[in-house]
Amino acid sequence: MPAATNQDDSTNQSKTTGFSQKPVQPSNIISSGGKEAEKMKLAVTDKLEQVSSEVVLAPEVEKAGVVKIGETIELPPDVKKLGVTANGSPVTVPASKPPSAHSMPLSDEAIYSGRRLSIGNTIRWLSEWCIRKLKKAHLVLRNIQGKIVRVKI
């Protein structure tokens, strides 16, 4: 078959697949769920309005006892003595020291020797759990010159 040009290629593709290549148009349909959800059309005349931060209370709401509080809050004197400020400045909280990610309920020697115990022993299972936690931290236990050392993998 002779080589086809770009124009022939596009017409051949539409003949073989049955689909023509049309540009995709944006849709005005909004769906809030799956394929069985009700689809709603968004009218072009619908526009978003900016809502002001000022809230106006209706008279019947005010009669019910709702009171509007201003933007700034007055702090009582006893709260001010504690060091609370209303200016929105960030307060630094001393960071507590996080627990070490590598602390184990057994020593490294007990973990290493516990792997050699019988399968029914609870120390064996506790040492296997510790080895699993060490592997998650990318560490393994090695016996180097008679000492048990944690090695990063």
Polypeptide structure, described:
Residues 1-35 are annotated as: Disordered. With 153 residues, the chain is an alpha+beta fold. The chain has a domain at 108-152. Helix content is 29%, strand content 12%. The strands form 2 sheets. It has a two-stranded antiparallel sheet.
Q: Topology of this protein?
A:
Elements: H1 6-17, E1 29-31, E2 39-41, H2 59-63, H3 77-81, H4 108-114, H5 122-136, E3 139-144, E4 147-152
Antiparallel strand pairs: 1-2, 3-4
Helix pairs in contact: 4-5
Region (Disordered): 1-35
Biased composition (Polar residues): 1-31
Give structural attributes.
153 residues, 4 strands, two-stranded antiparallel sheet, alpha+beta, elongated
Briefly summarize what is shown.
Residues 1-31 have a biased composition (Polar residues). The protein has helices spanning 6-17, 59-63, 77-81, 108-114, 122-136; strands at 29-31, 39-41, 139-144, 147-152.
Rounded mean pLDDT score: 74
- Structural class assignment: alpha+beta
Instruction: Assess the beta-strand content as a share of residues.
Output: 5-15%
Separate helix tally: 5
Fraction in helix: 25-40%
Largest sheet: 2 strands, antiparallel
Count of DSSP strands? 4
- Provide the low-confidence segments as ranges: none
Amino-to-carboxy terminus distance: 59 Å
Computed CA radius of gyration, to the nearest angstrom = 35 Å
Strand order of the largest sheet: 1-2
How are helices and strands ordered from N to C?
HEEHHHHEE
Which descriptor suits the 3D outline?
A: elongated
Biased composition (Polar residues): 1-31
Region (Disordered): 1-35
